[in-house]
Amino acid sequence: MCEKLLSIQSVAEILDISRRSVYRYIALGELSVIDLRTGTERSRVRVPGSSVKALVERRTSSVVSTAARAG
Question: What contacts 24+ positions apart, CB below 8 Å, involve 29-35?
């Protein structure tokens, strides 16, 4: 079965952030992407759902760890 691929807009909505922030996470290597470009068309980038889930898990862990150390 194929993994769900999400548009940049969908990822932004899921994470409640701007599209620009999604591209920042991609540039930082926090989100992986798949480029579905065919020929000379503009890029059609999609983000695997597992990449979004992994980002949330990493960020959740670091926030919990930071809060635990501060307390």
Answer: 30/55, 30/58, 31/55, 34/5
CA distance 17 to 21: 6
Angle (CA) 66 48 3, round 5°? 125
Residues of the chain above pLDDT 90, percent:
62
Predicted structure pTM score: 0.77
Residue 47 confidence (pLDDT) above 70: yes
Q: For helices 49-70 and 8-15, give the axis angle rounded to 10 degrees.
A: 30
Specify whether the CB–CB gap between 47 and 5 falls below 8 A. yes
